[in-house]
Amino acid sequence: MAEQHPVGFQWVMEARERGCKVIHVDPRFTRTSASADMWIPLRAGADILLFGVLIRYVLENERYFKEYVLHYTNASTILREDYRDSEDGAGLFSGWDAEKKMYDPETWLYERSTPKDQEDQDPTGHHPAGGGHGKDRGGEAGNTHQYITDETLQHPRCVFQVLRRHFARYTPEIVEQQCGIPKDVFLKLAETLVDASGPEKTACICYAVGWTQHSTGVQIIRSAAILQLLLGNIGRPGGGILALRGHASIQGSTDIPTLYDILPGYIPMPFFEDDSITLEKFIHKHTTAAGMWSNFDTYFISLLKSWYGDAATEANEWGFQWLPRVTGDHSELGYWLDMADGKMEGLFVMGQNPAVGAPNGRLQRKAMKNLKWLVVRDLRRGRNGKLLEGLARGAAGRTESGGDRHRSISHARGWAGRKKWQLHEYAAPRPVA
Fold it and tell me: Are residues 337 and 275 in the same domain?
C-alpha cells in the first residue's frame, strides 16, 4: 500500500501518529511492512486459514460485539432443518447437484421462509454466462422477510451456532503448521485486532488483488466480512473492508462500465432470454423485496431516460428494446476457451499481457497460437510479441525541461514486417494569456 497507494497511505501514517495500530500481513517485507507496528509474514495462499483461526478465536473467547451481532446481522436467524454444513456432508453443503455441478440453495433458506417465486425457473445467483460483475440474484433464493429468530443465540440451527461449528476446525495449531505464524505472534495479532473493535472503536481491513486472484478469492473476502461483522466493524466510521484498486481501468471498468455483462451502477445487461423480451419481465427478475435493489425499476428506467432522452417513452418501454443482448460468456476466460477451441480468428491485445499475466498462462499461449492473426498495442514487445503477426507500438511521450517542446517516438510495424521509425516534434499547447 505504501508504494502502490502513496496518497492514501498518508492517512494511514497520520492515523498511526495518533495511536492507530498498523498491522501488515504479507509474505514479503515491503515499505508498508517497514511503516507498520507489526509485520506478520505468512505462507502464500494461507490467508483464508488465518481468517478462519481469527474467527474461531473471536467466537470461542466471546470477543464479538454482541449487541451489534444481535441487532445488525442475521446471527440469531434459524435455518431450516434440512440444511447440512460441509462437515456433515463429506465436504459438500446440502443442495449439491452432482449432475449439474451446482448448488440448489433452497435448503439454505431461513426457517419458515419460502422460495421467492415458485413459478420462476431461473437459478439464483449470477447468470451462468455473466462475468459476475453486476447485481447478484442471490436475494431471490427466498423471501427473507419470513423467518424466526433466537435472540439468546443458543438454538443449534441459528446462524451463530452454525458459524461456530463450521469454524471449530480452525484450531490455533493451524496457524503454526499451515500459515507459518508462531502462536504468540498470532495471539498478539488477534488481541490487537479485537482491542481496536467494539462500541467505542473500529478497525478496517485493506486488501488488494493478492486476495482476489487466489482460486479461493471470494471465500477469503467473505471470511474477512464475517470477521468484521462479528467485531462490529461494518457500516461504522473507520471500519469496513477496503479494496485497494490498482488502476483507474480496474475500478473504472465496473463504474463506467466497460465490462460486457453490466450497465452503469452494476445493473445487469439483459441476456437473450424470455425475461428480457419485455421491460416488465426484466424488472421483475431483478427486483428484490427489500434493500437497495427494491428500487431496481427506478434505477434502470432513469438510466434509459438519461441515455435516450425524449425518445424514451413509456410506450416504447423507455428504449429497453434498443439495448443489445448478451449472447454468451464474453468474459476474458470465456474468450480464451473459445480461442483454444479454434472458434476465434484474431485478437487485439491492448493494455494487458495474457501470455504471462493470467492464472493459466500456458493455456493462453497455446490458445493464441490457434489465431489466424494477432495485434499487440504496447510500448514493448514482451512475451506476447513472440506470438506476434503484427505489432502496433503506441506513442511514448515526454516533455523537455523547457516545457515548450514535446517529442514523441512511435514505432509502426506493418503486416509484412517492414519497420519504420518516425520522430515527431511539434510545439506543445501554450497557455492563453
Answer: no
Same domain? 279 vs 336: no
DSSP state of 78: B
Tally the C-alpha atoms within 13 A of residue 66's C-alpha that lie toward its C-beta.
7
Range of the domain at 293: 258-322
Q: How far is CA 28 from CA 44, 95, 183, 310, in A?
A: 9, 40, 20, 56
d(Cα 417, Cα 379) in Å, to the nearest integer?
17
Same domain? 178 vs 239? yes
In this structure, the number of other CB atoms found within 10 A of the CB of residue 333 comes to 14
Copy the grid coordinates of residue 122. Answer: 431461473
Q: Tell me if 39 is assigned to some domain.
A: yes
Tell me the pTM: 0.75
**Of 184, 215, 248, which one is at a domain's C-terminal end?**
248
Taking only the tens of pLDDT, the chain with its 433 residues reads 888 888 889 999 999 999 999 999 999 999 999 999 999 999 988 999 999 999 999 999 999 999 999 999 999 999 999 999 987 877 899 988 889 888 888 888 898 887 766 445 455 556 666 656 666 555 556 777 778 999 999 999 999 999 999 999 999 889 999 999 999 999 999 999 999 999 999 999 998 877 877 778 889 999 999 999 999 999 999 999 988 876 556 666 677 777 888 898 889 889 887 778 999 999 988 887 777 888 999 999 999 999 999 999 999 999 999 999 988 888 878 888 999 999 999 988 877 778 777 777 888 888 988 989 888 877 766 666 666 554 455 555 443 344 333 333 333 333 333 333 333 333 333 444 3
